[in-house]
Amino acid sequence: MQVLGGYERGLAFVLSGPSGAGKTTLVDMLCKEFDCIERSISFTTRAPRASEREGIDYNFITKEEFEEKIEKGDFLEYAKVFDHYYGTSKSFVEAQKDKGKHVILVIDTQGAMQLMGSYDASFVFVSPPSIEILRMRMLLRNSETETTIEQRLSWAKKEMELSFRYDYLVLNQDLKDAYQVLKSILIAEEHKIR
Ligand code: 5GP
Fold first, then answer.
1. What CATH class is the domain 12-189?
2. Is CB count within 10 Å lower at the N or C end of the chain?
3. Domain segments of the chain as ranges
4. Per-residue pLDDT tens for 16-58?
5. Taking CB atoms and a 6 Å cutoff, what residues make up the pocket around ligand 1?
6. pLDDT at site 185
């Protein structure tokens, strides 16, 4: 029996959580296990990190190009995070859903708040066990300077205060357990009688 992928039109899932909470790893695991799951590829004005690829991790564009897209109404939501714009492409998400794929929007709390109440999606918050563990994970990732890490940690605290607004909370203390919980949420949502 197929546990996921039985829909003609896919569902949308919004996943938020502080940087370093493990959102990307969890979504990569889901996409690897299920062909019917796609991560929404956002547009951003931030510079790519060494490991990131254009069109796979993000669509990297200039501030001018981003503002043009805002004008044209291309975004389902967008926000400024750490001085850079990030936005979800309306057409990308709709095209995936039309193909029967469940789309996961990995976006910050500002973006999620814009969608809550107006966009049909399930809202999932991924939380790290503690701010200290988050700091350690960021240091290990070694992709940010110390100032950026402190800035991200203080933003993380603010984001975590908004977790109660989401439909589901996934505590990522152990990656395997967190993955089981997230997967179960997707399966339950697909099997929900609407
Ligand atoms: P990062 O620079 O670490 O890739 O992402 C920084 C933050 O921006 C993360 O919380 C990430 O989830 C969020 N983000 C990525 N894409 C989008 C988007 O399209 N919209 C919004 N609102 N946030 C996004």
1. alpha beta
2. N
3. 12-189
4. 999 889 999 999 999 999 999 999 999 999 999 999 999 999 9
5. 19, 42, 46, 77-79, 81, 86-88, 106-108, 110-111
6. 98
